[in-house]
Design goal:
single chain; Endonuclease, Chain A; six-stranded mixed beta sheet; Cro/C1-type_HTH; Lambda_DNA-bd_dom_sf
């Protein structure tokens, strides 16, 4: 069973939508039977809001799901009401990013491309602090950095996430926070790249144009076969989760191509070492 309440909420949403569609009921019809608004049911089915276990039980009865199948889904709904650690930082993390962190906490694989900055899972405290000051100012910066550091535990837990990172060369050349901060950041990435579950590759300028020039991305995969992979995109003010198989497949092909275009992990480690000396 999944551990993250975000993933559980997503699972319940998908199951309820599938069951309603299987019965042939419209959103309107099901919402009236469940004594809720059409908009609320739509938001539940899209995992935008949660649903209480008793309302899940009512929906399952409406869709004629009983016995062990019903009890298993109700148990997942109970888990979806638990609090994830990231919810303790809701004063500094926007709701749309809390959703991402909840997925990240449960992910078995993460594949990402970054064009301008070091991914959060690889950042030092001082680099993260510099990024937040540049993009969001001083407000809540200490708690934002603390949340970012806690996210990094997925790399070191008993069953760590398998992380594949492709970095534009610009990420390593742009001196964020000053030379000392950048030197320490590059050395930390070099250390992390030695973990058996982490692959870091540098995409050099010499590689020329590539298929991710318009957008960084994260592809999240899950160990539970019932959980579909997700592509996550974000910017300063919003995030977008793409769940359709065609989107995931397209970004997966892009990541595979970038990995072929980038330096090998070994050559990338050599590059990181040389880049850290540049900022000495």
């Amino acid at each position: 069973m999944t551990a993250s309440p975000t993933v559980r909420r997503r699972r319940i949403a998908r199951e309820l939508r599938h069951l309603r569609e299987r019965t042939g009921m419209t959103l309107d019809q099901a919402a009236r039977q469940l004594d809720m608004s059409k908009s609320n049911l739509s938001r539940i089915e899209n995992a935008q809001i949660g649903i209480k276990p008793r309302d899940v039980r009512a929906a399952l009865a409406l869709y004629q799901v009983t016995g062990e199948d019903a009890e298993a889904l109700i148990e997942i709904a109970r888990g979806a009401q638990q609090r994830g650690w990231w919810q303790n930082y809701s004063d500094v993390l926007p709701e749309w990013f809390e959703f991402y962190v909840g997925l990240e906490a449960e992910a078995a694989t993460l594949r990402t491309y970054e064009a301008e900055s070091v991914p959060g899972l690889l950042q030092t405290e001082e680099y993260a602090r510099a990024i937040y000051r540049l993009t969001a100012g001083e407000d809540g910066v200490d708690r934002k950095v603390a949340a970012r550091m806690q996210r990094q535990e997925v790399l070191h837990q008993k069953q760590p996430v398998q992380l594949s990172v492709v970095l534009n060369e610009a990420v390593l050349r742009r001196p964020v926070g000053g030379a000392a901060v950048m030197r320490d950041q590059l050395r930390q990435m070099l250390d992390i790249s030695q973990l058996p579950n982490v692959t870091i590759q540098v995409l050099p300028f010499a590689a020329g144009g590539h298929p991710a020039m318009t957008t960084p991305y994260v592809i999240l995969g899950f160990a539970d076969a019932a959980e579909e992979p997700v592509v996550y995109l974000d910017n300063l003010t919003m995030g977008l989760a793409l769940e359709e198989a065609a989107h995931v497949h397209g970004y997966t092909l892009v990541h595979e191509k970038l990995s072929r275009m980038a330096l090998t992990p070994e050559d990338s480690a050599t590059y990181l070492e040389a880049a850290s000396r540049y900022f000495a």
